[in-house]
Design goal:
The complex is a heterodimer of chains A (263) and B (34). Chain A is an alpha/beta fold and 263 residues long. Chain A has helices at 11-14, 32-36, 53-66, 110-117, 121-137, 139-150, 153-173, 200-208, 224-230, 242-260, and strands at residues 3-8, 41-45, 70-77, 83-86, 98-101, 178-182, 189-190, 193-194. Chain B has one helix at residues 2-28. The chains are: A alpha/beta (263), B mainly alpha (34).
Chain lengths: 263, 34
């Protein structure tokens, strides 16, 4: 039986805008996770562009539950402000149920989207289609309600850390070796202040996260995107290109080998 | 009249806070498309 290597994350793991990206139809073979995968393993990409941390944990768990012979899991956690929600059934939703919601789904400042995507007609077309569908399946109105009335950093950090601990504990229970990393350190920091200092609950939640199973790109839990930007790697519209992924893997390998061992 | 102006002012303030927060979130997470 082929050993399985599961990768979870957002567009950075899926490989959006990398050289082999075909408008997001298939996960990239140039992304950090695919480059990191041992050659004799089957790659299962549970990453989805635009996903938040609850969605990342859900998709990885789903793959772990469906596959009995998982040998290893790697996850690059994403931004705090994205939500994952089971909506009323609609064909356009993931599994006819799940919606990934980001601040860009609100009606405000749609002009900025057009401004940023105007260079790439294909991306603009994808975006317009997505907006149209979102109006029908209710995610557009829901995003407006979340970010206007309910969303805040405390709750978003709480949900993200809960998802991280949940997945960590499941993987430990199932004896599946894993390595976690992150796209951006806003998962743990609000500018200079660590979010664990917000109150006792957040301190306790942070203590549950086993940071010895993490790889970060520098001090203060620097994330992949921050590292790529700081080191002037070439970018597409918003994502670092292939070279950043290749070099990131070189940095990750010692931690990966230590945590995962000989698989 | 005074209440009407106060409500209008509060609505304007709420709208400004919302717009500011969205701008901040979009700056932190600039990845537009799915």
């Amino acid at each position: 039986m082929t050993k399985k290597f599961i990768a979870g994350g957002c567009s950075f793991t899926f490989g959006h805008e990398l050289s082999d990206d075909d408008q997001g139809r298939e996960p990239s073979k140039k992304s950090w996770a695919h480059v990191l995968k041992p050659k004799d393993h089957q790659y299962i990409c549970a990453a989805s562009p635009g996903s938040g941390n609850s969605g990342i944990a859900r998709r990885v768990f789903n793959e772990v539950a469906r596959n009995p012979d998982v040998d290893c899991v790697v996850v690059m956690w994403s931004f705090l402000s994205r939500y994952d929600w089971a909506m009323k059934r609609h064909n356009s939703l993931e599994g006819s149920r799940w919606a990934s919601i980001s601040p860009w789904d609100t009606d405000k400042e749609q002009g900025r989207v057009f401004e940023q995507l105007s260079k790439d007609k294909d991306q603009l077309e994808i975006w317009n289609k997505r907006r149209e569908i979102a109006k029908h399946n209710g995610t557009s109105q829901f995003a407006e309600a979340i970010y206007r009335y309910a969303g805040n950093m405390y709750h978003e950090a709480y949900l993200s850390w809960k998802s991280i601990s949940w997945l960590q504990n499941i993987l430990e229970k199932k004896n599946i070796p894993f390595m976690f990393t992150l796209a951006d350190n806003s998962l743990f920091y609000d500018h200079q202040a660590h979010l664990k200092g917000l109150d006792g609950l957040m301190t306790a939640m942070h203590n549950e996260i086993d940071l010895t199973k993490w790889f970060s790109f520098g001090e203060r839990m620097m994330g992949f995107n921050q590292w790529a930007s700081l080191n002037d790697y070439e970018y597409a519209t918003t994502h670092p290109l292939d070279k950043a992924h290749e070099d990131a893997v070189k940095l990750m390998l010692p931690t990966f080998n230590k945590l995962i061992g000989d698989i | 009249m005074f209440t009407w102006i106060k409500n209008l002012w509060n609505k304007f303030k709420q709208e400004r806070v919302y717009k500011k927060r969205l701008k901040e979130l979009k700056k932190k997470d600039p990845f537009i498309y799915k």
